[in-house]
Amino acid sequence: MSNDPTTPASAPVPSAVPDSPFRPEPGDRDLAPQFVLPLVVRIERAAPPPRTDALETAARAVLVMLADERSTGDGEWARAMRDWQDARIRKVVRRARGAEWRRAGALPGITVTGKTAEVRVFPPVPLDGWPKDLARLQVSGTDLDDPEPPVGADPAAPVLWMNPGLEMSAGKAMAQAGHGAQLAWWELSDDERAAWRDAGFPLSVRAADPARWTGLTTGGLPVVRDAGFTEIAPGSCTVVADHPALRR
């Protein structure tokens, strides 16, 4: 699903930054060339991944891309990553299986594997310039379920709390989880980022307790506010990024 975080539109958004890439209102970032971070989730007809595993794997895929040496400095993807982050922070999740997945795997990118989920993340591409093997993949149809309720989140590890009052397709929720992970990454110090990376980016994605949601969104943690391009109303709070290092 497409998601422009503005707090991404979805997008994450540092609250009072005038020209945040994640705010719902138009801004100077909208005047820059627009890019999108493509993510492709493998959904084989006979064995689709559980929803929570797919969300967590997508969030880790975004972090892996942000931390990859090819994405920084003079790396081969660094220019695309800078252009993407200078404009809106858009992420689009598409699905693939069989030969589609194999073709996607032949393109430059990184495949991240969860318990059973597989997500491949690619360097940002122009909004209207997708490689044909990705452009032909479907956005819709990423409706996944959890066969069993996920276990409680580890409070000592990062948790991406999803808004319990919003219904989102799995693709949309995967993009939102990616926004939340990215907001947390931006807020961390270099040492905190390195520690998270070296640990393999442990994290959980869980629906928040409705009774805690308001407190989570007003407690100073990074909050993703959707720009409203797809599925939900603009300005909706979708994810709170609860990293232990950011708890004040």
Give the distance, in angstroms, between the N- and C-terminal Cα atoms.
33 Å
Strand content: 15-25%
What's the total count of β strands? 10
Task: Give the low-pLDDT segments.
Answer: 1-18
Helix content: 25-40%
Q: Specify the overall morphology.
A: globular
Name the features.
10 strands; 6-stranded mixed β-sheet; alpha+beta; 248 residues; globular; disordered N terminus; 4-stranded mixed β-sheet
Set down the secondary structure blueprint.
Layout lengths: L1 E2 L31 E8 L8 H17 L10 H9 L3 E7 L1 H8 L4 E4 L4 E4 L3 E2 L5 H4 L23 E4 L7 H18 L2 H9 L5 E4 L2 H8 L5 E3 L11 E6 L6
Parallel strand pairs: 2-3, 7-8
Antiparallel strand pairs: 1-3, 2-5, 2-6, 4-5, 7-10, 9-10
Summary?
With 248 residues, the chain is α+β, with helices and mostly antiparallel strands.
Explain the overall architecture.
With 248 residues, this protein is α+β, with helices and mostly antiparallel strands. The protein is built from seven helices and ten strands. Strands 1, 2, 3, 4, 5 and 6 form a six-stranded mixed sheet that branches. Helix 1 (51-67) packs parallel to helix 5. It is globular.
